[in-house]
Inverse folding.
């Protein structure tokens, strides 16, 4: 395992990938290495350390941003393909083999489209909103570990940073909705704010439980802590809560109130077109990629997996799995109503998140040297008991309804199969 | 100090993804809650009733196609029933069975669209509707075999149908009818017991039976409210008197009942078609009539139970070759009578679903 030979220490991103012999897998370290060399790092008269740090940092940032920027079109393609299959159709297959060039065609179309700004819009805010929406989402990629040590910014408060940064994206939603000066957009924006407040809390609480288990907020350490058992098994309830809260955070079905195409036309981005719309779309789908990476990191042991595949392949596989799950849910469930979403968040998800946090804290106190494996079935049992018990407590009943059948003509005014007496009309 | 608020007026439609055509609704919202509504019709007005006065009795059939374009066969049938009443003639037995069968197929097709778009309005992203399009496509194939068209059929004629069913029709129909119950179960399995669907539809948009009767509501909407009123039972036309079927009746009259009633009506339609296939006699498909129909002076009202409710034609004849007056009792239009009563007080999202559950067709509303 040859390490960077120059003695020049670039930022963390290039550290850990060089354990793979193949040229492709060694590309980034060797790239960094040669860049380092060519700039004369660690030799007298070469570039100063800060300049190398800066240049390599920017190079790494470009790579990470491009994971988002290049990933988004293909996640969109995956969604269109999968939705096609769910819908009993084929999905895009005209451009390129299997429609693989479809994202290219889409991007080209969007770039050549007219950029319409409504005359009544707040022009500056209208133009700024897509940026405010997309930038925090890209920022969120910084502390995600893609492989061992392969992390842009190994922040000690990694997960806290992600929560803080992604919340900022909602400001963009509200800006877009308000500045468009469109009533549908405004409806979408108002719903966004309400939902943000509701679902951020269980989201953070379920992250809190994971942080308790790992004893750290650092995402790399959270992954290392899941050496043998992914957190999913210790935290089934937390995983459930996190998935639901993330669906709401991502405006995915069944929480896609903000863009609710059958009600609000397109919600907060009704008045956007061309590249501004593309930027909003980019932000949305980049958030899906980012959050699926975070879900895999927090609950599915991130880049860790059997060694026959490198770490970043593992995390990409897990992300693909989760993204497909989101698409599946979108193709399945109807949308919830705005008040029901609030009620579900506050009355159901939040107490469950508290139960989860409490149980986790108790377990961590009881077993300070790490949780034993026999707690896995216990925790799964606790998750089931908590969900079902709490639903019973809230008075939830499985509801069905039977129709009555009338074989013969019953004039209005008579009782219909004893169901209802009808007053004679007129 | 009380905060000064004012309702927000939103124009929903005529260009809105969920208004099922070009319906326009001016809604005053208090936050998300509907305070007041003002429906605006007429964007699809083509003057069918006036145009009918300029055409011969047979030519009017093509106008009826354009009323409810999702159920053109039913419109044809209603008109033909009315003209037959006016002329005092009766279609041959075989034609009656063909008409019954075709009308029931049309009911299935129309209900499929109603259910699909209702679930689409609820936000189930296109999956149910794509499933339902699949079976509707087969029905359209059948209609294409029978008359060569897929949307505007003009298949029914006064005193029968345009042409007898082609030989390939029956085998295809047999396969379809044998598959259909499983497909209906599939639609039911998709979302019927889904918790989100139930919370979104149960007790939402309740239409009490007495109100529904006062508002002249007919069709599945009325039956969902608990009134077992169905022209196929109460005034059997065509072959409905000779087949066994039941009328599904709801108990509450909410969105969920309307959803269930339409599902069940599809099953009953399958049942009717099966019996028609067994009982269908050989014989002529049409009575011999002159090229230009000249009914005697007088008037007649003929109506059928269309997929969306009672669809009736009131025809006045002055003895000429075209109707002196043709008035259409369009079920979609009359089913919108109580829109305000149903919508006020519900949230914006419910507005869309309640409107969707009424299953109106703008072609029929504006005529």
């Amino acid at each position: 395992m040859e390490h960077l030979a120059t003695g020049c220490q670039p930022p963390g991103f290039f550290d850990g990938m060089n354990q793979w012999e193949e040229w492709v897998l060694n590309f980034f370290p060797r790239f960094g290495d040669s860049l380092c060399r060519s700039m004369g790092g660690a030799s007298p008269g070469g570039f100063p350390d800060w300049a190398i740090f800066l240049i390599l940092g920017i190079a790494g940032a470009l790579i990470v941003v491009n994971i988002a920027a290049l990933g988004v079109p293909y996640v969109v393609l995956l969604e269109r393909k999968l939705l096609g299959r769910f819908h009993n159709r084929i999905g895009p297959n005209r451009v390129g083999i299997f429609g693989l060039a479809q994202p290219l065609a889409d991007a080209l179309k969007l770039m050549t489209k007219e950029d319409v700004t409504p005359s009544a819009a707040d022009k500056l805010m209208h133009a700024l909103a897509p940026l405010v929406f997309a930038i925090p989402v890209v920022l969120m990629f910084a502390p995600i570990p893609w492989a061992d040590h392969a992390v842009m910014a190994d922040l000690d408060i990694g997960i806290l940073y992600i929560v803080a940064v992604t919340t900022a994206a909602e400001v963009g939603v509200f800006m877009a909705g308000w500045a468009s000066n469109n009533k549908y957009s405004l409806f979408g924006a108002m719903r966004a704010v309400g939902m943000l407040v509701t679902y951020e809390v269980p989201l953070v609480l379920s992250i809190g439980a994971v942080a308790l288990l790992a004893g750290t907020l650092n995402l790399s350490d959270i992954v290392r802590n899941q050496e043998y058992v992914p957190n999913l098994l210790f935290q089934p309830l937390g995983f459930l809560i996190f998935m639901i809260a993330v669906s709401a955070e991502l405006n995915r079905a069944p929480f896609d109130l903000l863009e609710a195409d059958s009600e609000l036309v397109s919600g907060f981005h009704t008045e956007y077109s061309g590249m501004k719309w593309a930027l909003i779309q980019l932000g949305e789908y980049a958030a899906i990629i980012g959050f699926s990476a975070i879900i895999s990191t927090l609950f599915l042991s991130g880049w860790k997996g059997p060694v026959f595949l490198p770490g970043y392949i593992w995390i990409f596989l897990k992300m693909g799995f989760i993204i497909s799950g989101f698409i599946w849910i979108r193709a399945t469930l109807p949308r919830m109503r705005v008040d029901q979403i609030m009620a579900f968040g506050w009355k159901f998800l939040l107490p469950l998140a508290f139960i989860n946090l409490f149980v986790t804290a108790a377990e961590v106190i009881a077993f300070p040297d790490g949780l034993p494996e026999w707690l896995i079935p216990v925790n799964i049992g606790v998750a089931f008991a908590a969900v079902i018990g709490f639903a019973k407590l809230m008075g939830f009943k499985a509801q069905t309804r039977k129709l009555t059948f009338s074989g013969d003509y019953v004039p209005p005014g008579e009782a219909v199969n004893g169901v209802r007496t009808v007053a004679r009309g007129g | 100090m009380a905060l000064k608020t004012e309702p927000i007026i939103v124009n929903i439609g005529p260009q809105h993804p969920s208004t099922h055509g070009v319906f326009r609704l001016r809604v005053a919202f208090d936050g998300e809650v509907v305070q007041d509504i003002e429906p605006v019709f007429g964007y699809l007005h083509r003057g069918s009733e006036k145009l009918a006065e300029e055409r011969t009795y047979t030519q009017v059939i093509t106008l009826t196609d354009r009323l409810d374009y999702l159920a053109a066969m039913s419109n044809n049938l209603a008109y033909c029933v009315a003209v037959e009443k006016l002329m005092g003639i009766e279609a041959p037995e075989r034609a009656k069975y063909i008409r019954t069968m075709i009308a029931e197929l049309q009911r299935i097709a129309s209900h499929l669209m109603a259910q699909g778009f209702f679930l689409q309005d609820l936000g189930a992203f296109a999956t149910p509707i794509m499933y339902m399009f699949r079976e509707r496509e087969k029905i359209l194939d059948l209609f294409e075999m029978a008359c060569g068209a897929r949307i505007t059929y003009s298949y029914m004629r006064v005193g029968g149908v345009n042409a007898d069913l082609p030989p390939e029709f029956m085998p295809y129909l047999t396969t379809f009818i044998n598959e259909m119950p499983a497909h209906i179960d599939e639609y039911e399995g998709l979302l019927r017991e889904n918790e989100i669907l139930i919370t979104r539809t149960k007790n939402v948009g309740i239409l009490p039976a007495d109100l529904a009767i006062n508002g002249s509501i007919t069709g599945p909407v009325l039956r969902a409210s608990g009134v077992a009123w169905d022209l196929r039972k109460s005034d059997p036309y065509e072959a409905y008197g000779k087949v066994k079927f039941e009328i599904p009746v709801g108990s509450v009259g909410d969105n969920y009942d309307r959803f269930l009633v339409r599902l069940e009506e599809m099953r009953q339609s399958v049942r009717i078609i099966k019996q028609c296939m067994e009982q269908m006699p050989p014989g002529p498909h049409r009575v011999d009539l002159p090229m230009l129909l000249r009914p005697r002076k007088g008037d007649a009202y003929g109506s059928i139970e269309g997929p969306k409710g009672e669809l009736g034609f009131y025809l006045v004849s002055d003895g000429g070759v075209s109707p002196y007056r043709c008035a259409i009792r369009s079920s979609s239009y009359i089913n919108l009578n109580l829109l305000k009563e149903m919508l006020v007080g519900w949230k914006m999202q419910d507005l869309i679903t309640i409107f969707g559950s009424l299953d109106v067709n703008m072609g029929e509303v504006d005529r």
Q: What stands out?
A: Residues 93-122 of chain B form the longest helix (30 residues). The mean pLDDT of chain B is 87. Chain B touches chain A through 55 residues (CB under 8 Å).
